[in-house]
Amino acid sequence: MSSSQNWPCAALARADLADRTTMRVGGRVEWLLEPATPDEFVAAFAACRERGVATRVLGGGANLLVDDGMLGGAVLTTSRMNRLFRAPLDGEVSGALTGEEADLARVAPRDRTTNPRFVAWAGATMPAIVRAASELGWTGLEGLAGVPGNLGGGVAMNAGGRWGDMWDVIERVRVVDPDGGVRDLLRADCTPRYRDGGLGASIVLGAVLAFRVEDSARVKQRVREYLLEKRRIQPVTEWSAGCIFKNPPKETSDGRSAGKLIEDAGCKGLARGDAIVSELHGNFIVNRGAASAADVFTLIEDVRDRVAQKTTVRLETEVKVWR
Ligand SMILES: Cc1cc2nc3c(=O)[nH]c(=O)nc-3n(C[C@H](O)[C@H](O)[C@H](O)COP(=O)(O)OP(=O)(O)OC[C@H]3O[C@@H](n4cnc5c(N)ncnc54)[C@H](O)[C@@H]3O)c2cc1C
Known about the structure:
It is globular, with a radius of gyration of 20 Å. The longest helix is centred in the last third of the chain and has 18 residues, at 216-233. By secondary structure, the chain is α+β, with helices and mostly antiparallel strands. The chain has three domains: 10-77, Uridine Diphospho-n-acetylenolpyruvylglucosamine Reductase, domain 2 (2-Layer Sandwich), CATH 3.30.43.10; 84-218, 2-Layer Sandwich (Uridine Diphospho-n-acetylenolpyruvylglucosamine Reductase, domain 3), CATH 3.30.465; 236-322, Alpha-Beta Complex (Uridine Diphospho-n-acetylenolpyruvylglucosamine Reductase, domain 1), CATH 3.90.78.10. It is built from eight helices and 19 strands. It has helices at 38-51, 93-98, 104-107, 126-136, 151-157, 216-233, 258-264, 293-310; strands at 10-16, 28-34, 55-58, 64-66, 70-77, 84-86, 117-121, 138-139, 160-161, 164-165, 170-176, 182-186, 203-210, 212-213, 239-243, 271-272, 275-277, 284-287, 320-322.
């Protein structure tokens, strides 16, 4: 393929993917498409369908392992769709999700207590959303403090933890379906689960997030506490993809988390090439600098096998794998 192919958005041929993930492993993709608005995303997706090009969608790459070598097809990244707005009043939300920003300045309320809602496009970063909400003293998303990635990935994965999940603040989500159709889903229409937004193959273009107004200092204090706690127990400054495995159902694991099962199986510090099971948190694999995807995949299987030998639990991966 050559870069002359006429895509309806910015496009890169044979683009490197490793630097677009937090694990920093993996090879290239034939086409990287970089739409800047939800409308451009839909057009790029339609162009891929017309040309029979397989698609994948990339957010912040914080929950992703990309294989070594060349991936076929196109990756549509949301990184240029990094927009977050105060929500306009109800009748005008639809335009904001599409990109009619001009209207927003007119209708967006200025005081923090009126209409505590954001419109976020899929590429809005989670840290920016958490920061913006806490600045306004809006509560609901503090549990996502320290979780990297973009809104779209967070909604698709139902990112979260012990202090709350992404879907706690979702009011509606705009998606593009595999057939290219665009729909708005209300919260009541959706069934998010543990680390799964339940959207199937639909792609998130944006969402309306609804919060509750609280004392601003208290919200900021909770964000600080959660960030400190995350830094204490997770290798947040190292290259990783977050938790590799889902926590198993409590009844099968004596209530132990995946990290604890891995630690109990003696896997902390286990290494394959430059990929190593973190000494700080058993459910994190860290790239010490030059790990290949093959190193990480081998280590994942070794950890899974060791845990299965010690218990009856066969750990299921939380991280997404692109091969
Ligand atoms: C240090 C660290 C700490 C972490 N802590 C947590 C934590 O506490 N809790 C937690 O839940 N996660 C955590 N994670 C994992 C990660 O931050 C979340 O899963 C995050 O929501 C992934 O978002 P992303 O945009 O990076 O998605 P990506 O990694 O880019 O993609 C993940 C999956 O979502 C799909 N996807 C991406 N964008 C869209 C879209 N617009 N529409 C549909 N599907 C899409 C991708 O195709 C892929 O299947 C952590 C990761 C790291 C590196």
